[in-house]
Fold:
Amino acid sequence: MTLSEIQKELEKTWTLESYSEEFKAGKLPYRDFDHALKHVMKATGKLVSMVEEADHGGESFPAQRVANYIADLVICGIRLASKHPYGQIDIESAVMARIREKADVPKGG
Structure:
């Protein structure tokens, strides 16, 4: 499944059923963007805590927990692209452009 396909699937399946009435009543155009960003921060915080524990001789990196948090980062990144306040971002094109930019890959390559 491509990132674009995941983005389309999330748009169909992500509902607000489990959200509070206060959240659903919010009318700010960046409400969903902000919410996804907070979940990025939560997943990042969990990963940072694992690294910090490892630095102090604690628990290593349990593969399933790490995989879950990395998946959360990807899902929420896609959600951020879908809920950009000024219009949806094509996440697959954005990721490929960024890889090319970071890796200094020519556009035709």
User: Anything to note?
Assistant: Helices lie at 3-13, 21-25, 31-55, 63-82, 91-103. The first helix runs from residue 3 to 13. The mean pLDDT is 90. The radius of gyration is 17 Å.
